[in-house]
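Exercise 7.
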Amino acid sequence: MACTTTDQAGAVHDSTLPTTGTTAGILQRPYLWVTIGACALVFLAAFESLAVTTIMPVVSRELDGAGLYALAFAGPLATGVIGMVTAGNWSDRRGPALPLYAAVGLFVLGLIIAGTAVSMPMLVSGRLVQGLGGGALTVALYVVVARVYPAALHPGIFAAFSAAWVVPSLVGPFAAGLVAQVLSWHWVFLGVVVLVVPALVMIVPVLRGIDRPAEQGTPPPWAVGRIAWAALAALAVLGLNLSADVTIAGLSAAPALLAAAAVVIALVAVRPLVPRGTLLARRGLPSVILTRGLAGSAFFGAEVYLPYLLIDRYAFAPTFAGLALTAGAVAWAGAAAVQGRLGPRLPHRTAVRTGAALVLLAIVLTLATSALHWSAVVAIAAWIFAGGGMGLLYPRLSVMTLALSTKADEGFNSSAMSIADSLGGALALAATGIVFAAFTTTAESFAGVFALTAVLAVAAVAVAPRVAR
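Solution. The predicted structure, written as C-alpha coordinates, is:
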Protein backbone atom coordinates (compact mmCIF):
# COMPACT_ATOMS: atom_id res chain seq x y z
CA MET A 1 0.00 0.00 0.00
CA ALA A 2 2.92 2.29 0.55
CA CYS A 3 3.97 4.47 -2.37
CA THR A 4 7.48 5.83 -2.90
CA THR A 5 9.10 7.94 -5.62
CA THR A 6 12.08 10.15 -6.25
CA ASP A 7 12.33 13.77 -7.32
CA GLN A 8 12.82 14.41 -11.03
CA ALA A 9 14.49 17.45 -12.47
CA GLY A 10 12.64 19.66 -14.89
CA ALA A 11 9.34 19.68 -13.00
CA VAL A 12 6.60 21.83 -14.50
CA HIS A 13 4.91 24.10 -11.98
CA ASP A 14 2.53 27.06 -12.05
CA SER A 15 3.91 30.01 -10.11
CA THR A 16 0.42 31.19 -9.27
CA LEU A 17 -0.24 28.14 -7.15
CA PRO A 18 0.42 27.88 -3.44
CA THR A 19 3.50 25.90 -2.45
CA THR A 20 2.31 24.83 0.95
CA GLY A 21 2.66 21.24 2.00
CA THR A 22 -1.00 20.88 2.86
CA THR A 23 -3.11 18.15 1.31
CA ALA A 24 -5.64 20.85 0.30
CA GLY A 25 -3.11 22.21 -2.19
CA ILE A 26 -3.46 19.20 -4.44
CA LEU A 27 -7.16 20.00 -4.84
CA GLN A 28 -6.60 23.56 -6.04
CA ARG A 29 -6.44 24.62 -9.68
CA PRO A 30 -4.76 23.55 -11.87
CA TYR A 31 -3.95 20.46 -9.80
CA LEU A 32 -7.57 19.54 -9.10
CA TRP A 33 -8.34 17.43 -12.16
CA VAL A 34 -4.96 15.78 -12.43
CA THR A 35 -5.22 14.84 -8.75
CA ILE A 36 -8.68 13.33 -9.21
CA GLY A 37 -7.67 11.55 -12.41
CA ALA A 38 -4.42 10.13 -11.02
CA CYS A 39 -6.08 8.95 -7.80
CA ALA A 40 -8.89 7.40 -9.86
CA LEU A 41 -6.36 5.40 -11.91
CA VAL A 42 -4.63 4.19 -8.75
CA PHE A 43 -8.01 3.34 -7.23
CA LEU A 44 -9.13 1.35 -10.29
CA ALA A 45 -5.84 -0.57 -10.55
CA ALA A 46 -6.04 -1.42 -6.85
CA PHE A 47 -9.71 -2.37 -7.07
CA GLU A 48 -9.07 -4.68 -10.00
CA SER A 49 -6.18 -6.39 -8.23
CA LEU A 50 -8.23 -7.05 -5.09
CA ALA A 51 -11.50 -7.80 -6.86
CA VAL A 52 -10.00 -10.57 -8.99
CA THR A 53 -8.82 -12.37 -5.84
CA THR A 54 -12.44 -12.64 -4.73
CA ILE A 55 -14.01 -13.78 -7.99
CA MET A 56 -11.27 -16.06 -9.33
CA PRO A 57 -12.61 -19.21 -7.61
CA VAL A 58 -15.92 -18.66 -9.44
CA VAL A 59 -14.14 -17.93 -12.73
CA SER A 60 -11.93 -20.99 -12.37
CA ARG A 61 -14.92 -23.23 -11.72
CA GLU A 62 -16.96 -21.84 -14.64
CA LEU A 63 -14.08 -22.00 -17.12
CA ASP A 64 -12.72 -25.29 -15.80
CA GLY A 65 -9.36 -23.64 -15.22
CA ALA A 66 -8.06 -24.92 -11.89
CA GLY A 67 -4.73 -25.77 -13.54
CA LEU A 68 -4.20 -22.11 -14.50
CA TYR A 69 -5.58 -20.60 -11.28
CA ALA A 70 -2.19 -19.50 -9.92
CA LEU A 71 -1.00 -18.25 -13.32
CA ALA A 72 -3.94 -15.85 -13.43
CA PHE A 73 -2.34 -14.10 -10.45
CA ALA A 74 1.37 -14.75 -10.99
CA GLY A 75 1.31 -13.80 -14.67
CA PRO A 76 0.30 -10.13 -14.21
CA LEU A 77 2.91 -9.70 -11.47
CA ALA A 78 5.59 -11.11 -13.76
CA THR A 79 4.70 -8.99 -16.79
CA GLY A 80 4.30 -6.01 -14.47
CA VAL A 81 8.06 -6.10 -13.84
CA ILE A 82 8.67 -5.62 -17.57
CA GLY A 83 6.20 -2.73 -17.56
CA MET A 84 7.90 -1.06 -14.58
CA VAL A 85 11.40 -1.19 -16.04
CA THR A 86 10.30 -0.16 -19.55
CA ALA A 87 8.07 2.72 -18.42
CA GLY A 88 10.77 4.07 -16.12
CA ASN A 89 13.37 4.10 -18.89
CA TRP A 90 10.88 5.49 -21.43
CA SER A 91 9.84 8.27 -19.04
CA ASP A 92 13.47 9.27 -18.48
CA ARG A 93 13.98 9.46 -22.25
CA ARG A 94 10.77 11.12 -23.45
CA GLY A 95 8.73 12.13 -20.41
CA PRO A 96 5.77 10.33 -18.84
CA ALA A 97 2.95 11.15 -21.27
CA LEU A 98 3.52 8.51 -23.95
CA PRO A 99 4.33 5.77 -21.39
CA LEU A 100 1.14 6.65 -19.52
CA TYR A 101 -1.00 6.49 -22.67
CA ALA A 102 0.55 3.15 -23.60
CA ALA A 103 0.12 1.81 -20.07
CA VAL A 104 -3.57 2.72 -19.89
CA GLY A 105 -4.11 1.28 -23.38
CA LEU A 106 -2.55 -2.05 -22.41
CA PHE A 107 -4.44 -2.10 -19.10
CA VAL A 108 -7.77 -1.53 -20.87
CA LEU A 109 -6.97 -4.09 -23.58
CA GLY A 110 -6.19 -6.68 -20.92
CA LEU A 111 -9.46 -5.94 -19.10
CA ILE A 112 -11.44 -6.37 -22.32
CA ILE A 113 -9.75 -9.68 -23.16
CA ALA A 114 -10.30 -11.01 -19.63
CA GLY A 115 -13.85 -9.68 -19.44
CA THR A 116 -14.89 -11.38 -22.66
CA ALA A 117 -12.97 -14.61 -22.01
CA VAL A 118 -14.69 -17.87 -22.86
CA SER A 119 -11.80 -20.06 -21.69
CA MET A 120 -9.21 -19.94 -18.94
CA PRO A 121 -6.26 -19.53 -21.37
CA MET A 122 -7.99 -16.50 -22.87
CA LEU A 123 -8.58 -15.01 -19.43
CA VAL A 124 -4.95 -15.57 -18.45
CA SER A 125 -3.82 -13.89 -21.68
CA GLY A 126 -5.87 -10.85 -20.77
CA ARG A 127 -4.37 -10.84 -17.30
CA LEU A 128 -0.83 -10.88 -18.74
CA VAL A 129 -1.58 -7.84 -20.89
CA GLN A 130 -3.31 -6.15 -17.97
CA GLY A 131 -0.28 -6.73 -15.73
CA LEU A 132 2.08 -5.24 -18.32
CA GLY A 133 -0.02 -2.10 -18.45
CA GLY A 134 -0.56 -1.96 -14.68
CA GLY A 135 3.15 -2.09 -13.90
CA ALA A 136 3.90 0.65 -16.41
CA LEU A 137 0.96 2.72 -15.15
CA THR A 138 2.33 2.96 -11.63
CA VAL A 139 5.77 4.15 -12.70
CA ALA A 140 4.43 6.63 -15.26
CA LEU A 141 2.10 8.17 -12.67
CA TYR A 142 4.99 8.64 -10.23
CA VAL A 143 6.91 10.56 -12.88
CA VAL A 144 3.83 12.67 -13.65
CA VAL A 145 3.65 13.60 -9.97
CA ALA A 146 7.33 14.57 -9.94
CA ARG A 147 6.93 16.75 -13.03
CA VAL A 148 3.59 18.42 -12.22
CA TYR A 149 3.52 18.98 -8.45
CA PRO A 150 6.00 21.09 -6.47
CA ALA A 151 7.99 19.14 -3.91
CA ALA A 152 5.98 20.65 -1.05
CA LEU A 153 2.84 18.92 -2.36
CA HIS A 154 4.41 15.48 -2.83
CA PRO A 155 3.45 14.25 0.68
CA GLY A 156 -0.15 15.26 0.00
CA ILE A 157 -0.50 13.52 -3.37
CA PHE A 158 1.16 10.33 -2.14
CA ALA A 159 -1.07 10.33 0.92
CA ALA A 160 -3.98 10.51 -1.52
CA PHE A 161 -2.51 7.59 -3.50
CA SER A 162 -2.26 5.55 -0.30
CA ALA A 163 -5.90 6.32 0.45
CA ALA A 164 -6.77 5.25 -3.10
CA TRP A 165 -5.27 1.85 -2.25
CA VAL A 166 -6.93 1.53 1.16
CA VAL A 167 -10.50 2.20 0.00
CA PRO A 168 -10.53 -0.65 -2.58
CA SER A 169 -9.11 -2.90 0.12
CA LEU A 170 -12.20 -2.16 2.18
CA VAL A 171 -14.90 -2.30 -0.47
CA GLY A 172 -13.34 -4.09 -3.44
CA PRO A 173 -13.70 -7.75 -2.37
CA PHE A 174 -17.30 -7.31 -1.23
CA ALA A 175 -18.27 -5.25 -4.29
CA ALA A 176 -16.66 -7.75 -6.66
CA GLY A 177 -18.46 -10.65 -5.01
CA LEU A 178 -21.75 -8.78 -5.24
CA VAL A 179 -21.25 -7.98 -8.95
CA ALA A 180 -20.34 -11.62 -9.66
CA GLN A 181 -23.47 -12.84 -7.88
CA VAL A 182 -25.97 -10.31 -9.21
CA LEU A 183 -24.63 -9.79 -12.75
CA SER A 184 -21.63 -11.84 -13.86
CA TRP A 185 -17.93 -12.05 -13.08
CA HIS A 186 -17.33 -10.64 -16.58
CA TRP A 187 -18.46 -7.22 -15.36
CA VAL A 188 -15.79 -7.10 -12.68
CA PHE A 189 -13.38 -6.61 -15.60
CA LEU A 190 -15.55 -4.78 -18.12
CA GLY A 191 -17.01 -2.36 -15.59
CA VAL A 192 -13.56 -0.97 -14.84
CA VAL A 193 -12.98 -0.22 -18.55
CA VAL A 194 -15.85 2.26 -18.50
CA LEU A 195 -14.18 4.19 -15.65
CA VAL A 196 -10.52 4.12 -16.74
CA VAL A 197 -10.94 6.28 -19.84
CA PRO A 198 -12.60 9.26 -18.05
CA ALA A 199 -9.88 9.10 -15.39
CA LEU A 200 -7.17 9.39 -18.05
CA VAL A 201 -9.00 12.25 -19.78
CA MET A 202 -8.73 14.31 -16.58
CA ILE A 203 -4.92 14.07 -16.75
CA VAL A 204 -4.49 14.75 -20.49
CA PRO A 205 -4.29 18.60 -20.24
CA VAL A 206 -1.23 18.53 -17.96
CA LEU A 207 0.52 15.87 -20.03
CA ARG A 208 0.84 18.14 -23.06
CA GLY A 209 3.61 20.21 -21.52
CA ILE A 210 5.68 17.58 -19.76
CA ASP A 211 6.40 14.98 -22.43
CA ARG A 212 10.12 15.64 -22.50
CA PRO A 213 13.19 14.30 -20.70
CA ALA A 214 13.62 15.35 -17.07
CA GLU A 215 17.14 16.62 -17.81
CA GLN A 216 17.92 18.98 -20.67
CA GLY A 217 20.39 17.70 -23.23
CA THR A 218 20.87 14.20 -24.58
CA PRO A 219 18.26 11.79 -23.18
CA PRO A 220 19.55 8.66 -21.49
CA PRO A 221 19.86 5.56 -23.68
CA TRP A 222 17.41 2.70 -23.60
CA ALA A 223 18.29 0.39 -20.70
CA VAL A 224 18.13 -2.63 -22.96
CA GLY A 225 20.02 -4.77 -20.48
CA ARG A 226 17.65 -4.15 -17.58
CA ILE A 227 14.59 -4.60 -19.78
CA ALA A 228 16.01 -7.87 -21.08
CA TRP A 229 16.70 -9.14 -17.55
CA ALA A 230 13.16 -8.16 -16.51
CA ALA A 231 11.74 -10.01 -19.53
CA LEU A 232 13.84 -13.08 -18.74
CA ALA A 233 12.62 -13.07 -15.15
CA ALA A 234 9.01 -12.80 -16.32
CA LEU A 235 9.45 -15.65 -18.80
CA ALA A 236 10.98 -17.80 -16.07
CA VAL A 237 7.96 -17.20 -13.84
CA LEU A 238 5.58 -18.09 -16.67
CA GLY A 239 7.63 -21.19 -17.39
CA LEU A 240 7.46 -22.19 -13.75
CA ASN A 241 3.68 -21.98 -13.89
CA LEU A 242 3.52 -24.20 -16.97
CA SER A 243 6.24 -26.67 -16.00
CA ALA A 244 3.81 -29.11 -14.37
CA ASP A 245 2.10 -29.68 -17.73
CA VAL A 246 5.30 -30.51 -19.61
CA THR A 247 6.07 -34.17 -20.26
CA ILE A 248 9.18 -35.68 -21.81
CA ALA A 249 9.15 -39.30 -22.91
CA GLY A 250 11.14 -41.49 -20.55
CA LEU A 251 11.77 -38.70 -18.03
CA SER A 252 9.23 -38.71 -15.22
CA ALA A 253 11.10 -36.00 -13.34
CA ALA A 254 10.84 -33.53 -16.22
CA PRO A 255 8.31 -31.19 -14.55
CA ALA A 256 10.40 -30.96 -11.38
CA LEU A 257 13.60 -30.32 -13.34
CA LEU A 258 11.95 -27.65 -15.47
CA ALA A 259 10.48 -25.98 -12.39
CA ALA A 260 13.88 -25.92 -10.68
CA ALA A 261 15.51 -24.49 -13.83
CA ALA A 262 12.83 -21.78 -14.05
CA VAL A 263 13.44 -20.72 -10.43
CA VAL A 264 17.21 -20.57 -11.00
CA ILE A 265 16.76 -18.47 -14.16
CA ALA A 266 14.40 -16.08 -12.37
CA LEU A 267 16.85 -15.60 -9.50
CA VAL A 268 19.75 -15.04 -11.89
CA ALA A 269 17.70 -12.52 -13.88
CA VAL A 270 16.64 -10.55 -10.81
CA ARG A 271 20.19 -10.03 -9.52
CA PRO A 272 20.95 -6.99 -11.74
CA LEU A 273 17.59 -5.46 -10.76
CA VAL A 274 18.19 -5.39 -6.98
CA PRO A 275 21.05 -4.19 -4.70
CA ARG A 276 24.12 -6.40 -4.60
CA GLY A 277 23.91 -9.03 -1.88
CA THR A 278 20.11 -9.15 -1.78
CA LEU A 279 19.85 -12.88 -2.51
CA LEU A 280 22.51 -13.52 0.15
CA ALA A 281 20.62 -11.53 2.81
CA ARG A 282 23.52 -9.14 3.35
CA ARG A 283 22.88 -6.81 6.29
CA GLY A 284 21.28 -3.44 5.66
CA LEU A 285 19.53 -2.51 2.42
CA PRO A 286 19.88 -5.94 0.72
CA SER A 287 18.05 -7.60 3.63
CA VAL A 288 15.42 -4.84 3.59
CA ILE A 289 14.62 -5.66 -0.05
CA LEU A 290 14.75 -9.42 0.57
CA THR A 291 12.48 -9.21 3.62
CA ARG A 292 9.99 -7.21 1.59
CA GLY A 293 9.97 -9.86 -1.12
CA LEU A 294 9.71 -12.81 1.28
CA ALA A 295 7.00 -11.32 3.50
CA GLY A 296 4.97 -10.18 0.49
CA SER A 297 5.36 -13.57 -1.17
CA ALA A 298 4.12 -15.38 1.93
CA PHE A 299 1.19 -13.02 2.49
CA PHE A 300 -0.10 -12.73 -1.07
CA GLY A 301 0.63 -16.37 -1.88
CA ALA A 302 -1.66 -17.42 0.97
CA GLU A 303 -4.23 -14.63 0.50
CA VAL A 304 -5.03 -15.75 -3.05
CA TYR A 305 -6.14 -19.16 -1.76
CA LEU A 306 -8.04 -17.96 1.31
CA PRO A 307 -11.27 -17.06 -0.58
CA TYR A 308 -10.83 -20.29 -2.58
CA LEU A 309 -10.69 -22.25 0.69
CA LEU A 310 -13.77 -20.50 2.11
CA ILE A 311 -15.81 -21.03 -1.07
CA ASP A 312 -14.71 -24.59 -1.82
CA ARG A 313 -14.50 -26.10 1.66
CA TYR A 314 -16.91 -23.99 3.69
CA ALA A 315 -19.51 -23.12 0.99
CA PHE A 316 -19.14 -19.36 1.47
CA ALA A 317 -20.73 -17.10 -1.12
CA PRO A 318 -18.14 -15.00 -3.00
CA THR A 319 -19.44 -11.86 -1.28
CA PHE A 320 -18.75 -13.17 2.21
CA ALA A 321 -15.50 -14.88 1.24
CA GLY A 322 -14.29 -11.45 0.15
CA LEU A 323 -15.01 -10.05 3.60
CA ALA A 324 -12.07 -12.07 4.95
CA LEU A 325 -9.80 -10.02 2.70
CA THR A 326 -11.54 -6.85 3.83
CA ALA A 327 -10.81 -7.71 7.47
CA GLY A 328 -7.14 -8.12 6.61
CA ALA A 329 -7.12 -4.83 4.72
CA VAL A 330 -8.67 -2.98 7.67
CA ALA A 331 -6.02 -4.47 9.97
CA TRP A 332 -3.29 -3.48 7.49
CA ALA A 333 -4.51 0.13 7.38
CA GLY A 334 -4.90 0.27 11.17
CA ALA A 335 -1.44 -1.13 11.89
CA ALA A 336 0.12 1.21 9.32
CA ALA A 337 -1.53 4.18 11.06
CA VAL A 338 -0.35 3.01 14.48
CA GLN A 339 3.28 2.54 13.41
CA GLY A 340 3.15 5.96 11.78
CA ARG A 341 2.00 7.61 15.01
CA LEU A 342 4.60 5.78 17.08
CA GLY A 343 7.37 6.97 14.79
CA PRO A 344 10.85 6.56 16.29
CA ARG A 345 9.36 5.19 19.52
CA LEU A 346 8.91 1.95 17.58
CA PRO A 347 12.34 1.03 16.14
CA HIS A 348 12.38 -0.07 12.51
CA ARG A 349 13.89 -3.45 13.34
CA THR A 350 11.25 -4.15 16.00
CA ALA A 351 8.40 -3.22 13.66
CA VAL A 352 9.76 -5.44 10.89
CA ARG A 353 10.42 -8.43 13.15
CA THR A 354 7.00 -8.14 14.81
CA GLY A 355 5.24 -7.78 11.47
CA ALA A 356 6.99 -10.82 9.97
CA ALA A 357 6.13 -12.88 13.06
CA LEU A 358 2.45 -11.92 12.81
CA VAL A 359 2.33 -12.94 9.14
CA LEU A 360 3.88 -16.31 10.04
CA LEU A 361 1.39 -16.84 12.88
CA ALA A 362 -1.56 -16.08 10.60
CA ILE A 363 -0.43 -18.48 7.88
CA VAL A 364 0.23 -21.26 10.40
CA LEU A 365 -3.29 -20.81 11.81
CA THR A 366 -4.72 -20.91 8.27
CA LEU A 367 -2.71 -24.05 7.56
CA ALA A 368 -4.07 -25.67 10.71
CA THR A 369 -7.61 -24.67 9.70
CA SER A 370 -7.30 -26.32 6.30
CA ALA A 371 -5.47 -29.43 7.53
CA LEU A 372 -7.44 -30.08 10.71
CA HIS A 373 -10.84 -28.88 9.46
CA TRP A 374 -11.15 -26.18 12.10
CA SER A 375 -13.88 -23.57 11.91
CA ALA A 376 -13.56 -21.02 9.12
CA VAL A 377 -13.67 -18.34 11.82
CA VAL A 378 -10.09 -19.26 12.76
CA ALA A 379 -8.76 -18.57 9.26
CA ILE A 380 -10.71 -15.31 8.99
CA ALA A 381 -9.46 -14.13 12.38
CA ALA A 382 -5.94 -15.20 11.47
CA TRP A 383 -6.02 -12.95 8.42
CA ILE A 384 -6.56 -9.98 10.69
CA PHE A 385 -3.17 -10.79 12.25
CA ALA A 386 -1.66 -11.15 8.77
CA GLY A 387 -2.94 -7.73 7.69
CA GLY A 388 -1.70 -6.19 10.94
CA GLY A 389 1.73 -7.68 10.38
CA MET A 390 1.95 -6.30 6.85
CA GLY A 391 0.79 -2.89 8.07
CA LEU A 392 3.67 -2.84 10.54
CA LEU A 393 6.49 -3.99 8.31
CA TYR A 394 5.67 -2.66 4.81
CA PRO A 395 5.78 1.09 5.62
CA ARG A 396 8.94 0.65 7.69
CA LEU A 397 10.68 -1.24 4.90
CA SER A 398 9.77 1.60 2.52
CA VAL A 399 11.20 4.17 4.92
CA MET A 400 14.36 2.12 5.45
CA THR A 401 14.87 1.75 1.69
CA LEU A 402 15.00 5.52 1.24
CA ALA A 403 16.98 6.05 4.45
CA LEU A 404 19.66 3.62 3.26
CA SER A 405 19.81 5.16 -0.22
CA THR A 406 21.74 8.09 -1.67
CA LYS A 407 20.50 10.59 -4.23
CA ALA A 408 22.35 8.61 -6.87
CA ASP A 409 20.54 5.33 -6.20
CA GLU A 410 17.14 6.27 -4.76
CA GLY A 411 15.43 5.48 -8.04
CA PHE A 412 17.17 2.13 -8.48
CA ASN A 413 16.45 1.08 -4.89
CA SER A 414 12.80 2.16 -5.04
CA SER A 415 12.45 0.20 -8.27
CA ALA A 416 14.12 -2.80 -6.62
CA MET A 417 11.56 -2.67 -3.82
CA SER A 418 8.67 -2.77 -6.30
CA ILE A 419 10.35 -5.55 -8.27
CA ALA A 420 10.82 -7.58 -5.07
CA ASP A 421 7.10 -7.21 -4.42
CA SER A 422 6.00 -8.22 -7.89
CA LEU A 423 8.54 -10.87 -8.79
CA GLY A 424 8.56 -12.42 -5.32
CA GLY A 425 4.79 -12.65 -5.36
CA ALA A 426 4.81 -14.06 -8.88
CA LEU A 427 7.29 -16.79 -7.97
CA ALA A 428 5.33 -17.66 -4.84
CA LEU A 429 2.06 -17.88 -6.74
CA ALA A 430 3.67 -20.01 -9.44
CA ALA A 431 5.04 -22.38 -6.82
CA THR A 432 1.73 -22.57 -4.95
CA GLY A 433 -0.01 -23.36 -8.23
CA ILE A 434 2.31 -26.33 -8.77
CA VAL A 435 1.77 -27.51 -5.20
CA PHE A 436 -1.99 -27.14 -5.44
CA ALA A 437 -2.11 -29.25 -8.61
CA ALA A 438 0.25 -31.90 -7.23
CA PHE A 439 -2.22 -33.42 -4.75
CA THR A 440 -5.22 -35.61 -5.44
CA THR A 441 -7.64 -34.00 -2.96
CA THR A 442 -8.44 -30.36 -2.35
CA ALA A 443 -7.83 -30.83 1.38
CA GLU A 444 -4.24 -31.85 0.69
CA SER A 445 -3.87 -29.12 -1.94
CA PHE A 446 -4.88 -26.32 0.42
CA ALA A 447 -2.66 -27.70 3.18
CA GLY A 448 0.28 -27.89 0.75
CA VAL A 449 -0.20 -24.29 -0.39
CA PHE A 450 -0.36 -22.90 3.13
CA ALA A 451 2.61 -25.04 4.19
CA LEU A 452 4.70 -23.57 1.37
CA THR A 453 3.74 -20.00 2.22
CA ALA A 454 4.51 -20.73 5.87
CA VAL A 455 8.05 -21.70 4.82
CA LEU A 456 8.37 -18.34 3.04
CA ALA A 457 7.13 -16.59 6.16
CA VAL A 458 9.72 -18.45 8.25
CA ALA A 459 12.39 -17.18 5.86
CA ALA A 460 11.08 -13.62 6.28
CA VAL A 461 11.26 -13.98 10.08
CA ALA A 462 14.83 -15.26 9.78
CA VAL A 463 16.00 -12.40 7.54
CA ALA A 464 14.10 -9.62 9.35
CA PRO A 465 16.75 -9.04 12.10
CA ARG A 466 19.34 -8.34 9.39
CA VAL A 467 17.55 -5.23 8.08
CA ALA A 468 19.55 -3.11 10.53
CA ARG A 469 23.25 -2.73 9.90
